[in-house]
Amino acid sequence: MAGLHPAQAALQEVVRGRQVGNWELTEPLGRGGQGTTWRAIWKREDHSLTRVGVAGGRLNRGVIKLMLPPAPDEVPIPPARFDAWLAGEVKAFLFEAMVLSKIDSPYIPGVFEAATQQTQAGWDVPWFATELISGRSLAEQVGTVGPMDQNQLLDLAHDIVAALVAIHHVGLVHLDLKPDNVMLEPGRARLIDFGLVTKANQKGRLGGTPGFFTPEQLDEVIEERDFAPAADVFKLGVTLAIAAGVRLPDIWGTDPFGEDETVRRAMRKGAQLVSLKPVLRDLITPMLAFDPFARPTAAAVLEQVRDLLPAGNSKGSGKAQGGGATAPPALPKPPQPADRPARAAAAGQPVPAAAGVGNANLGARVVVVDRLGLDWTGVVVGVDTKRPGNILVKHESTRGAENVRSYPLSQVVRGTPLK
């Protein structure tokens, strides 16, 4: 590997071998400034592809992030100091895994492990494994399906801002909230890519995505307020506006990639959200305040969103029903196919069935289309006795918990949900 720094040669060696720790790298997912990500399978002697295929079972999948070391000539550092600088970058990279492990939220991917992979090239490649999110980004969703309606947007806002509350609770900020970093799963959205958290909180560096910088980040001075939680709230407002159908240039009425001072002057005039419904406009506008101290906290936004969520949404406070706060309705529980019919028969009771549906083909794998237009694969676990014509489908949750949702038969696009 003549001409390559050992760190770069080591990364190439790992990619060729497709193995870190007990993880097999199966498919590249993306490449960013801090690293490259791969879809991966947890491989142990008793958990091989062959064994799973023959004996049945479920593969444990995850995402591996490998540190992407730059070449010495790509950074403005004297060659003699490059190795010491790179050692600091390794610590910052692994710090991202520590950051994620500190945050307890179902709307943020969890960390499985973090380590370094020894190589023949003489440099240990840093990596960490996180949960695999089975979905598409908000950017992809809006680009292919179009803007979200009000209820969809409020549901989305709940999940993103709940993630921000958890991040801010441990004294961190995300700093790169944008539609590309929001992933949509069945029943929830999740915030990903915490690379800038490490850069900002550990070394005081400013980073982000052009078009999503806050007014305070566009001035000529890097100061503490550039890394404050209010920056996340501002980026949340931009993200929600885009999800609602407002084009990024239209938010400020100017090219968001133009001269910083020009963009700041447009921001001082206020966001142009007249195309949004009043409820959404009143929610998003305060987040986009020019003065960071005038923006609501993430916790305040979360409370506001919960009050606005419609009746029947388990994430809401119930105030949108007009009767004050009520306990959120319980999620449907999956039936126990092994023993419920037997218990009913033993008690001399008829086995219940949903009107208009018949008996669910329990265990059938089906593909359903949710209200966002996304296709999801799941397993039929029963019929929904509260909604005639619906079946209960269980999705695989990345945290291992059961995720059962009700779907009309008309939304089943593949599979056999009935006997």
From TrEMBL:
The keyword Iron-sulfur does not apply. It comes from the Bacteria. Signal peptide: none annotated. Residues 312-355 are annotated as: Disordered. Residues 23-309 form the Protein kinase domain. SMART domains: S_TKc (SM00220). Belongs to the protein kinase superfamily. Ser/Thr protein kinase family. GCN2 subfamily. This is Protein kinase domain-containing protein. It comes from Microbacterium terricola.
